């Protein structure tokens, strides 16, 4: 599938990954490949990856992985995630063509697999007897198998099949673990009819969610739906700077911002008596969070005097919201402080949370206008990372970059309830 981006040499990509992969964090980097390579090119990739990454490249010791290694055990390692190449039965090599060694994409409908351009073609003009053709086919088969083995040896996370019913796709293999990719549309459909199977699948396997193809303007979907059912990878259009991307940034502020956040125990524990966690079910209140918004500072330093209003100071108010399961999602806001660069609200909000482990506190400051209100800063924080007391919280621009001076003075109080 062609895109509007300029092609980049694979070697340059791999070398850039090697140089910058672990600058911010030493947790593993996963390279998800969407390949439609011939066996020969798969072999070339294997040699290239081994040469560039060297000991940084993690290669599993067996083709049949029964449990994925923990991220902590793979620090400073690069992992490959893709569909494994097909096996080449020797009897197929004497046919008119040989398939290209990789299965059809699990993300997009690519149509039928392209035929291997190097496959042996029949040619009536060629005077090759049966014995010579058998020798050629055997040689080609061995070459393909060798290339496929080298490529397969690199793959840690095997892509799963994309065919069959949703129940078939979510079926947990007895021992082998895999990765399954679903579009946001298919996730929504599966969550409505196969919620328990989704959670059971993600307890051992990896589920990746990606935006629907209709999002041509790089918008994003609500990531919480994937997280609530245990999806480990929720893909984003990184150029779509909206609320959804801010939620993703907030989620991964946890665990030191390393890019890996452990799932809550109720999404990890084995399902007993088919009683899986159901994010649609109303659960008892587990935690009460109180957020007090005292005041805000810094806009006068980071913005021009006429940025918000041409002839008067801005009229700021703060939105305080919870993003999480349906029962916990709440939106509140302070009063508007008119004509003031240094607003003081001194207002408190209470949130009763049933699943605090999946809750994010979203804060946004706006300037009240007659038309649409002007953006004045935002941040998103994992509730699980909040602590009691006063906090000076830096606000960010629409893209998530911190302002130099803009901050809110907040107070947090958390009370965990005893649930029988």
Automatic annotation (TrEMBL):
Any one GO molecular-function label of the UniProt entry: phosphatidylinositol-4,5-bisphosphate phospholipase C activity
GO cellular component: plasma membrane
Enzyme Commission no: 3.1.4.11
Primary site of residence: membrane
PROSITE patterns, A to Z: C2, PIPLC_X_DOMAIN, PIPLC_Y_DOMAIN
Keywords: Cell membrane, Hydrolase, Lipid degradation, Lipid metabolism, Membrane, Transducer
Domain PI-PLC Y-box residues, every copy: 181-267
Enzyme kind, highest EC tier: hydrolase
Positions with biased composition (Polar residues): 92-103
Needed co-factor(s): Ca(2+)
Compartments where found: Cell membrane
GO BP, sorted A to Z: intracellular signal transduction; lipid catabolic process; response to stress
Reaction catalysed by this enzyme: a 1,2-diacyl-sn-glycero-3-phospho-(1D-myo-inositol-4,5-bisphosphate) + H2O = 1D-myo-inositol 1,4,5-trisphosphate + a 1,2-diacyl-sn-glycerol + H(+)
Domain C2: 267-397
Annotated region described as Disordered, given as residue ranges: 88-115
Domain of life: Eukaryota
Protein name: Phosphoinositide phospholipase C
Annotated organism of origin: Medicago truncatula (Barrel medic)
Lineage, uppermost ranks: Eukaryota, Viridiplantae, Streptophyta, Embryophyta, Tracheophyta
Gene: 11406677
């Amino acid at each position: 599938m062609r895109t509007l981006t300029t092609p980049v040499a694979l070697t340059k990509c791999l070398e850039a990954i090697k140089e910058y992969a672990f600058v911010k964090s030493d947790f593993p980097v996963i390279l998800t490949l969407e390949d439609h390579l011939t066996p020969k090119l798969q072999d070339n990739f294997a040699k290239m990856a081994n040469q560039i990454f060297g000991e940084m490249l993690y290669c599993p010791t067996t083709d049949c992985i029964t449990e994925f290694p923990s991220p902590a055990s793979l620090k400073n390692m690069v992992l490959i995630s893709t569909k494994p190449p097909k096996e080449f039965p020797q009897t197929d090599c004497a046919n008119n063509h040989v398939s290209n060694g990789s299965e059809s994409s699990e993300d997009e409908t690519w149509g039928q697999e392209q035929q291997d351009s190097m496959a042996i073609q029949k040619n009536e003009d060629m005077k090759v007897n049966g014995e010579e053709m058998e020798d050629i086919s055997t040689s080609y088969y061995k070459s393909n198998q060798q290339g496929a083995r080298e490529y397969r040896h690199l793959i840690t996370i095997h892509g799963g099949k994309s065919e069959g019913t949703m129940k078939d796709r979510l079926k947990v293999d007895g021992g082998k673990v895999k990765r399954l990719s679903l579009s946001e549309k298919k996730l929504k459909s599966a969550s409505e009819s196969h919620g328990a199977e989704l959670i059971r699948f993600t307890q051992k396997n990896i589920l990746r969610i990606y935006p629907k193809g209709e999002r041509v303007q790089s918008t994003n979907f609500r990531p919480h739906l994937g997280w609530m059912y245990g999806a480990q990878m929720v893909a984003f259009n990184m150029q779509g700077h909206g609320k959804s991307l801010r939620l993703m940034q907030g989620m991964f502020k946890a665990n030191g911002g390393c890019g890996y956040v452990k799932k809550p125990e109720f999404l990890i524990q084995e399902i007993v008596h088919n009683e899986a966690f159901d994010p649609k079910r109303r659960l008892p209140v587990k935690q009460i969070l109180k957020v007090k918004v005292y005041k805000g500072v810094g806009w006068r330093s980071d913005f021009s005097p006429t940025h918000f209003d041409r002839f008067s100071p801005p009229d700021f108010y703060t939105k305080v919201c919870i993003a999480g399961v349906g029962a916990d999602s709440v939106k509140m806001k302070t009063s508007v402080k008119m004509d003031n660069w240094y607003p003081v609200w001194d207002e408190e909000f209470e949130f009763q949370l049933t699943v605090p482990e999946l809750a994010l506190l979203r804060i946004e400051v706006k300037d009240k206008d007659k038309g649409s209100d002007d953006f004045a800063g935002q941040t998103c924080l994992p509730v699980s990372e909040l602590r009691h007391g006063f906090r000076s919280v830096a606000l960010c621009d629409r893209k998530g970059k911190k302002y130099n001076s803009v901050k809110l003075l907040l107070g947090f109080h958390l009370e965990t309830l005893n649930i029988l």
